[in-house]
Structures are given as structure tokens and as C-alpha cells.
Design brief:
Layout: H1 3-15, H2 18-25, H3 29-43, E1 48-50, E2 55-57, H4 59-83, E3 90-97, H5 106-115, E4 119-126, H6 128-136, E5 142-145, E6 155-162, E7 164-168, E8 180-181, E9 190-192, H7 197-206, E10 215-216, H8 220-228, E11 233-237, H9 238-246, E12 251-252, E13 255-256, E14 264-270, H10 278-289, E15 295-296
Parallel strand pairs: 3-4, 3-5, 8-13, 9-10, 9-11
Antiparallel strand pairs: 1-2, 5-14, 6-14, 6-15, 7-11, 7-12
Length: 297
């Protein structure tokens, strides 16, 4: 099977356009059609539904696409390994939720890179669902996420459990309060980050229906910076705000009443076969060194 055919399928699945796919690959549109026809003939399945407006994957196409992507990924990994053989002995690909990289995982990455200079590390950031899908597709070795995988064949470890913290600027009138009842949160213009999962369920209990916040921001570390600059208050995980609390650039005010925020868990997930790889075991050991002990679930 021609690798270029698989590349064409992958690009077409993204662009949903024969003309755009041809432009990206610098080929004529008829070549795109011929490659897809060749692949469909080889597999004996229709991979795309075509109409005048767009192109969509069939159910068979959806099933085959992850395998095509895996083949392309492995080919690139093989090329990279050959080209890097003089510098590196092995590689490690870690999928991380965005918010954990600058906080909990920073010291782990720092020491792992120092301790294993001949391991090439690739850090992929995304949402928990996307990271877990990359694990299913075999693209990454370890997933560091906020939700449990639905597929039981994976080895899952609880690495961290923490609380949510209400913070505000030191000169904010809220900083003078000894507590903030959760029922009062609806009166506060929060800088909001939706952590998902049980946190979203908790917020839904406090604020029934859809509502706006003072700012809804996808990067919690950026929210910390805004709070430090006096832009407002926020509810974030303790690991996200611990450095700001230590330098007294924000103030923590305890939340009281009911319902209180849920406890927040971080998980490390990998395929059992990957545990046989030394770089994976070394990574989990390094996490344990920084109190991110991998407790099997």
C-alpha cells in the first residue's frame, strides 16, 4: 500500500474537499480521486461519501482512519529514530492536559530531561478526551488526564488529589473576608475556567442554566496572572495557585456552606504493554519522586 495514498486519505478527512487536498499535496484533483479509489479497492470498502458540497467519511472510513494515522505516525517515528540514533536511544511521548504542564508536571519534566539525556521526550497538550483518544490510537505512551478512561484494558493510576481554591487580589475587598459562602459566588464576577467533570457538575448546581462570567478563559495559569494584576477573582486547583500564594500575590479565602467544590483527581494512564518500556517506568518513578505517586486503580 502506497504511503502517499494514506496521507491523501488523512488530509481529505480533514479538509473534506478534493480541491483543497490536491492543493495541500501539490497534486491535481484527479490524482486525489485516483488514490482514494485505489485505497477503497484495496480495502473493499467505501471510505468517503461524496456530494456536490463536501466529502465525509463513511462508517468504514471512520473505523480505518485511526489505523492509517497510526501507520503514518509510526513511519515518521521510524524516520526520526534513524536520523537521531547518534543522539538518542529511545523516545517517550506524553499526553498532558494543558493546565497540568506548568504546575504539577514542571519539576517532573525538568528532572527527567536532566536524568535521561538520551531519551527524546515529546509533550503533547490537549483536553482529557483528546489525550485519551491519542492513547487509544497508539500515538502517545502515557496520558496525564483529569478523567478515567472508559476502556478497561488500560493501566490507570491515581497520581494526585487536591482541592479547589478561591483566590482574589490582595487589594480586593473580598480579601478582607474570613470566608465566602458558596451561595454568594453567583454575585461575584469570576474569572472562570471550566475544569470539566465533577467541577462542571458543581458549577451547574450553583448557577442553574447558562450564564456568562466576567471572563471565560481556557488557560488557568493565565487566569492566575490576571488575578495577580487585580483583574478579578477565580476558583482554581491548589497546584495552579500555590506559587502565587507563596509569593503573596493573591489571597485565598475559604469557601463555606454547601455544596463545596469536589476533590480533583489527576490520573496517569498507559497500555499495560507500554509498562515494559524502560522510559515509561522511569517516568512513573520520577512522578512518584515528586509526590505524584502512581496508585493503581
Amino acid at each position: 500500500m502506497d504511503i502517499e495514498v494514506l496521507k491523501t486519505m488523512q488530509i481529505l478527512s480533514q479538509t473534506k474537499s478534493f480541491s483543497k487536498t490536491a492543493e495541500i499535496q501539490n497534486i491535481v484533483q484527479s490524482t486525489v480521486s485516483a488514490r482514494i479509489a485505489e485505497l477503497e479497492k484495496t480495502l473493499g470498502q467505501k471510505l468517503f461519501i461524496r456530494d456536490n458540497q463536501r466529502v465525509d467519511l463513511t462508517q468504514s472510513g471512520l473505523m480505518f482512519l485511526p489505523y492509517a494515522q497510526h501507520i503514518l505516525e509510526e513511519l515518521e517515528n521510524g524516520k526520526a529514530k534513524l536520523n537521531s540514533a547518534t543522539l538518542f536511544d529511545d523516545s517517550l511521548v506524553i499526553g498532558n492536559v494543558y493546565s497540568i504542564l506548568p504546575n504539577l508536571l514542571f519539576p517532573v519534566y525538568r528532572e527527567y530531561l536532566r536524568s535521561f539525556p538520551r531519551i527524546s521526550v515529546k509533550a503533547v497538550a490537549g483536553h482529557s478526551t483528546d489525550i485519551l483518544q491519542s492513547l487509544v490510537d497508539g500515538i502517545i505512551d502515557i496520558a496525564i488526564v483529569y478523567q478515567l478512561p472508559r476502556i478497561r484494558r488500560f493501566a490507570t493510576f491515581l497520581c494526585n488529589e487536591e482541592d479547589f481554591v478561591f483566590i482574589c487580589p490582595p487589594d480586593d475587598p473580598l480579601a478582607d473576608r474570613t470566608e465566602i459562602p458558596v451561595k454568594d459566588l453567583e454575585k461575584i464576577n469570576l474569572l472562570f475556567h471550566d475544569w470539566g467533570g465533577s467541577f462542571s457538575d458543581w458549577i451547574a448546581q450553583l448557577f442553574p442554566g447558562t450564564r456568562w462570567f466576567h471572563a471565560n478563559i481556557g488557560n488557568p495559569s493565565f487566569i492566575v496572572s490576571l488575578v495577580e494584576e487585580g483583574a478579578g477573582a477565580a476558583i482554581l486547583t491548589r497546584s495552579t495557585v500555590q506559587k502565587a500564594l507563596a509569593r503573596n500575590s493573591v489571597v485565598e479565602v475559604p469557601l463555606t456552606g454547601s455544596p463545596l467544590p469536589p476533590r480533583w483527581q489527576t490520573y496517569a494512564v498507559t497500555h499495560p504493554k507500554r509498562l515494559a518500556r524502560q522510559p515509561v517506568r522511569d517516568w512513573l518513578d520520577m512522578m512518584s519522586k515528586y509526590d505524584l505517586t502512581a496508585v493503581p486503580i
